[in-house]
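User: Structure please.
Assistant: Input sequence and predicted structure:
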Amino acid sequence: MDFRYLGNSGLKVSEISYGNWLTHGSQVENEQAKACVKAALEAGITTFDTADVYANTAAETVLGEALEGQRRESLEILTKVYWPTGPGGPNDVGLSRKHIHESINGSLKRLKTDYVDVYQAHRFDTETPLEETMEAFADVVRQGKALYIGTSEWTADQLREGHRLARELRVPLVSNQPQYNMLWRVIEAEVVPASEELGIGQVVFSPIAQGVLTGKYKPGQQPPEGSRATDAKGGADMISRWLKDDVLERVQELQPIADEAGLSLSQLAIAWVLQNRNVSSAIIGASRPEQVTENVKAAGVKLEDALLKRIDESLGNAIETDPAKTAQNAPQTRPGS
């Protein structure tokens, strides 16, 4: 495993991290989930990402149990706050001082740890003053419950304003967690340049486009039984935008490129996001341990410029680059409000 600094901080993270969105406490039985975490640890992954909203807090509980007994100092644990949790009451959502403080306490209890390495704003809260949010995050850091703070899917302007307040409060805002993959490149035009300017690193999710870039979804065919596209608990909704024949046909054109590089399609996709120097870590998920073992082989892979150009040519107009999509895909009001 190779390691990278998280933004301009002194914290190193494994360049491939393990996340349990849509799996632990939901799609995958607990024992299988723990086996996936064990495989991640054996592969050299030290960075684990979760969120309180995943499976309505159950994912944090499973991860906490799976990591129990590991040397805490050898791990980097990231979690997030924003989306509704619990019974979904009026204050069970957002980035208010109340919700942030109650959420970090719940997350620490479920994760069986005294602190998280990075506490992330899971989205931007349009209904709470940013000053209130950042002051609450600063309190969490000063109380020793988090070492660093981060964001997820914030726009360039939101990152700049959040970073300005973090500097005034003297707390380290060091990361952003966006979706990023060969097909979804909307952060490249604005978010990445702003992050490089501010010293913020990307911890990216969906590097294989929720399985589409593995090539297992074939144009004109039904999704494989048991795949995320057939999961009624949420996976099918999340992946549906990629399941168009024109996109799937272009993905199939990547197979000879992967073969030439000596990689599987999933390894090629993960290696691709790691070519971006602003990416500190790529999050992989898994429903089986062998998926972890395969995907970590993308660590340390260098893709030549000519190969990257062929990827672009193969995917063509299936690539989304519009920077406005970051804001468009974010909630304009708090969920449930």
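The CA atoms of residues 270 and 315 lie 16 Å apart.
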